[in-house]
From TrEMBL:
Keywords: Membrane, Transmembrane, Transmembrane helix. It comes from Pseudanabaena cinerea FACHB-1277. This is Sterol desaturase family protein. Residues 88-224 form the Fatty acid hydroxylase domain. It comes from the Bacteria. Its main location: membrane. The keyword Phosphoprotein does not apply. One of its GO terms (cellular component) is membrane. GO terms for molecular function: iron ion binding; oxidoreductase activity. The chain crosses the membrane at residues 6-25, 46-67, 87-105, 141-161. One of its GO terms (biological process) is lipid biosynthetic process. The keyword Membrane applies.
C-alpha cells in the first residue's frame, strides 16, 4: 500500500472542495461567525494534528493492518472467509467501533473534555468535521490500531474504511441543503448533514443522539436516533451553552487549552 497516503489525501481534498463549493451555492443555514476566522483556525488545527500524529504514531492504521496480516494476528487471520466478505465485515465492524468510541467520548467526563473542542464550534460547516483536539486524534488512532490488531483487518479494508470515514465526516458536517425527500431516504444508509447537525445542538438531549459518523444504522439499532431538533434546522442553536456569544472558542489557542480549563 505504497500509495495509501496519496489515495487518502486525494479523496480528502476532492471531497473538501466539493463540499466547500456546495456550501457556497446552496447553504442550509446562515453562519454567525466570520468564515475566514473559523476556517483559518479550524484548518490550522488539522495541519497541527497531522504533524503530531505522524510524529507520535508514524505507523498508520494501514501499516498496522499489513503487520497483523504478516504475523497472523487477529480474528480474520484465524478464520477462512471470502476476501470480499472479509473486507465488507471489516469496514462494517470498524464503523461500529467508531460509533462506540463516539458514544464513549460523550459518556465519560475525561474523554468529553477532549471531545467538546469539536462541539464548541458555534457554526456547523465542512471545517467542523476536521476540528478535533490533538489528544483526541491520538487516542482515536490508538483505539483504531487496537481494533485492527484484534480483528486482523486486511490493509485494503482499512484503506477503504479510512477513506469513507474521512469523506463522510466532511459530508455530514456540510452546511448544505438537501431536499427533504432526498434526505429522508439517504439517512436510511448514511448520516446526512441534517441528521448530524442535531448532534451539534446546544440542547444536551439532542447533543447526546445521532452518534454515527458514516453509517446511520447504529443509531437506529441502539436507539440513539433523533429525527430533528426541537427548534428545527434553521432555528436550532449550534455549539455548547457555556460558549455561546464568545469568539474565544473559534481560535486555535483556545481549542488547545479548552480540555484543561
Amino acid at each position: 500500500m505504497n500509495n495509501e497516503a496519496l489515495i487518502r489525501l486525494s479523496f480528502f481534498c476532492g471531497t473538501f472542495v466539493i463540499m466547500a463549493i456546495w456550501e457556497a451555492i446552496a447553504p442550509r443555514r446562515m453562519l454567525i461567525i466570520s468564515k475566514p476566522l473559523r476556517w483559518i483556525n479550524n484548518l490550522s488545527l488539522v495541519v497541527l494534528n497531522t504533524l503530531i500524529l505522524r510524529a507520535v504514531l508514524p505507523m498508520a492504521a494501514v501499516g498496522v493492518a499489513a503487520i497483523a496480516k504478516q504475523q497472523g494476528w487477529g480474528l480474520f487471520n484465524l478464520i477462512d472467509l471470502n476476501d470480499g466478505l472479509e473486507i465488507f465485515l471489516s469496514v462494517l465492524l470498524l464503523d461500529l467501533i467508531i460509533y462506540g468510541q463516539h458514544l464513549m467520548f460523550h459518556t465519560l467526563p475525561i474523554f468529553w473534555r477532549l471531545h467538546k473542542v469539536h462541539h464548541a464550534d458555534l457554526d456547523f460547516d465542512v471545517t467542523t468535521g476536521l476540528r478535533f483536539h490533538p489528544l483526541e486524534i491520538l487516542l482515536s488512532m490508538l483505539i483504531k490500531i487496537i481494533a485492527i490488531l484484534l480483528l486482523g483487518t486486511p490493509a485494503i479494508a482499512v484503506l477503504i474504511f479510512e477513506t469513507i470515514l474521512n469523506s463522510t465526516a466532511l459530508f455530514n458536517h456540510g452546511n448544505v441543503h438537501i431536499p427533504k425527500s432526498g434526505d429522508r431516504w439517504l439517512r436510511y444508509l448514511l448520516v446526512t448533514p441534517d441528521m448530524h447537525r442535531v448532534h451539534h445542538s446546544v440542547i444536551p438531549q439532542e447533543t447526546n443522539s445521532n452518534y454515527g459518523f458514516s453509517l446511520s444504522w447504529w443509531d437506529y439499532l441502539f436507539r440513539t436516533y433523533r429525527a430533528n431538533a426541537a427548534a428545527g434546522q434553521q432555528d436550532m442553536q449550534i455549539g455548547l451553552a457555556e460558549y455561546q456569544g464568545t469568539l474565544k472558542v473559534a481560535r486555535i489557542s483556545e481549542m488547545l487549552i479548552l480540555p484543561f480549563l
